[in-house]
Design goal:
Pfam family, one: Cpn60_TCP1
Bound molecules: adenosine-5'-diphosphate, magnesium ion
Protein name: Chaperonin GroEL, HSP60 family
CATH topology of the largest domain: GROEL, domain 1
Largest sheet: 9 strands, mixed
CATH superfamily of the largest domain: GroEL-like equatorial domain
Radius of gyration: 30 Å
Strand content: 15-25%
Number of strands: 20
Family: Belongs to the TCP-1 chaperonin family.
Keywords: ATP-binding, Chaperone, Nucleotide-binding
Shape: elongated
GO molecular function: ATP binding; ATP hydrolysis activity; ATP-dependent protein folding chaperone; unfolded protein binding
């Protein structure tokens, strides 16, 4: 549909309103628009609610081609659900931002966002203006970020125990649960190995999945694992103290750009031509030898003749190395990536104590170990089935995220609903100082945050009211680290228990959940080019899009999705 058909000019011409809007487009305004968007947002939050916390359940998602994903990870669920409603998508973005910024806390962020919308609905019904609400929510969010910063606990980069607790907390309730102590150690080792001061680039951690054997047999390889074999059988299997060349080029004779025709008039000429090619290949290998190369990783191809010469020289060479792997090799061995073999010099080479071809996970792979600066590591994840390894990988990714973020920020918070309870308490006090109608919004914000501990309790089969009452009374008496032990139902000191999360998980969740809720609340007009579809109503395109009737049709899809959340 042409964009300009969307132009609305509700001009008054005399008494005749003139609306320039395409026939297929649909418009919902005022309270209808607000409540449609709120319902959509809440439905999204509802769909992931049951997965929250250590006792949260998993979801099985089946796409149109029959692929199955079993997961507990909020952002994965929302991405796989293929949500179409625009307001619902704003909530999905909350999860995506959370994933990008911290890697964990996606479910919590979405659940809080949904609850902010729910609380707002009540206030809107009491005729509090959406703008007032938005202002109150923003004020509350700012204050909340200050409060969590105040109660955050410092953690230093060499506090391995706390880092392992953080790594383990992020994996609680996921497929990785039963091996989480072992995996937490690997995660902390991996992140520490690639950390450069307080900067961590998790791209330097390669996660390789292997189906077979148990999750707790997963291991960390200091160095890089390349899923390739050496290019020629006469090359060595193992090279000790290797000078490593990383080449973004081919060891082949370059074809001429223009299709040249070579007319050979006598056999000598042909021989000369072939000799010349061979000489060129020989020269490339000689260049490598002169620089002192023991192992060569080549991103492009290696000519048969060159392979033969390399093998003669005792060089282990690998071809068609992925450029992401080449980068990792360069970083870990200290090599410089060469784009032209003839330029290679001794200081372009990196160093590895050992380069070997081994059978890893059922295939021949090249393992580069004992590297000069282990700025690159490989986490070899094992698990009984593909679905298991995939879910372990997602848990590990959350875990790598939180440990990196902690190294960067040096601040953590207790988990188990402790910060949410503390925030609710302090925000209610803060509300008194706000005054006006915004005060009600700040109070609503405080109530909304308690959805965290409430949901943890519900998912653990505990009484949410009792749990909240116990939590509040502990926090009232000054125990800001008191949280809910989802296994026993007791309120305990989460810091002592080792249930800790990075500060950024909470600040980011507060920020994006508030932004999304505020954005949705401020909308009083939805103009859609065509039918506003919810999930699963793809085939009703040709139904007449009848004014307000169309919108609830869209909502029907969303309602169905919420129902799916409840059913799983
Ligand atoms: P998210 O996608 O938000 O990270 P999770 O399913 O990972 O969702 O649940 C995170 C919540 O579970 C956090 O509030 C965290 O504090 C809590 N949690 C994690 N481990 C425990 C535990 N052992 N006891 C109580 N709560 C826990
Ligand atoms: Mg988590």
């Amino acid at each position: 549909m042409a964009i300009n058909s969307l132009l609305i000019m509700a001009q008054q011409m005399g008494n005749q309103p003139m609306i320039v809007l395409s026939e297929d487009s649909q418009r919902t305004s005022g309270k209808d628009a607000q409540s449609m968007n709120i319902t959509a947002g809440k439905a999204v939050a509802e769909s992931v609610r049951t997965t929250l916390g250590p006792k949260g359940m998993d979801k099985m998602l089946v796409d149109s081609t029959g692929n199955v994903v079993v997961t507990n990870d909020g952002v994965t669920i929302l991405k796989e659900m293929d949500i179409e409603h625009p307001a619902a998508n704003m909530i999905v973005e909350v999860a995506e931002t959370q994933e990008d910024e911290v890697g964990d806390g996606t479910t919590s962020a979405v659940v809080v966002s949904g609850e902010l919308l729910k609380e707002a609905e009540d206030l809107l019904d009491q005729d509090i203006h959406a703008t007032t609400l938005a202002q109150g929510y923003r004020q509350a969010a700012e204050k909340a970020k200050e409060i969590v910063k105040d109660i955050a606990i410092d953690v230093s980069a060499d506090d391995t125990e706390t880092l392992e607790s953080i790594a383990a907390t992020a994996m609680t309730g996921k497929g990785a649960e039963n091996a989480k102590d072992h995996l937490a150690k690997l995660v902390v080792q991996a992140v520490s190995a690639v950390a450069d001061g307080d900067e961590v680039d998790t791209d330097n951690i390669k996660v390789e999945k292997v189906v077979g054997s148990a999750v707790d047999e997963s291991e960390l390889i200091e160095g890089v694992l390349i899923d390739k074999d050496r290019v020629h059988e006469n090359m060595p299997y193992f090279v000790e103290d290797a000078n490593v060349a990383v080449i973004d080029d081919a060891l082949e004779v370059k074809e001429t750009e223009i299709d040249a025709e070579v007319n050979v008039t006598d056999p000598d000429q042909l021989q000369e031509f072939l000799d010349q090619e061979e000489a060129q290949l020989r020269e490339m290998v000689d260049d490598l030898v002169e620089a002192g190369t023991d192992v060569a990783f080549v991103e492009d191809g290696i000519d048969d003749m060159a392979q033969h010469y390399l093998a003669q020289e005792g060089i282990l060479a690998v071809r068609r190395v992925k450029s992401s792997d080449a980068e990792k090799l360069a970083r870990s061995t200290g090599a410089r990536v060469i784009s032209n073999v003839s330029d290679i010099e001794a200081d372009d080479l990196g160093f590895a104590g050992s380069v070997s071809q081994q059978e890893v996970a059922g295939s021949q792979q090249i393992l580069v170990e004992d590297v000069e600066d282990a700025k690159s590591v490989t986490l070899l994840l094992r698990g009984g089935t593909e679905h298991v390894v995939d879910e372990v990988e997602r848990a590990i990714e959350d875990s790598l995220g939180v440990v990196s973020v902690t190294l960067e920020d040096g601040k953590v918070l207790p988990g188990g609903g402790a910060p949410e309870t503390e925030l609710a308490l302090e925000l209610r006090q803060f509300a008194d100082s706000v005054g006006g109608r915004e005060q009600l919004a700040v109070e609503a914000f405080a109530d909304a945050l308690e959805v965290g501990p409430r949901t943890l309790a519900e998912n653990a089969g505990l009484d949410p009211i009792d749990s909240l009452v116990n939590l509040r009374s502990e926090h009232d008496s000054g125990n800001s680290t008191a949280g809910l032990d989802a296994y026993t139902g007791d309120v305990i000191d989460m810091e002592a228990e080792g249930v800790v999360e990075p500060l950024r998980v909470k600040t980011q969740a507060i920020e994006s959940a508030t932004e999304a809720a505020v954005m949705i609340l401020r909308i009083d007009d939805v103009i859609a080019a065509g039918d506003l579809k919810g999930g699963g109503t793809d085939d009703d395109d040709d139904e007449p899009a009848g004014g307000p009737g169309g919108a609830p049709g869209g909502m029907g899809g969303m309602g169905g999705m919420g129902g799916m959340g409840g059913a799983m």
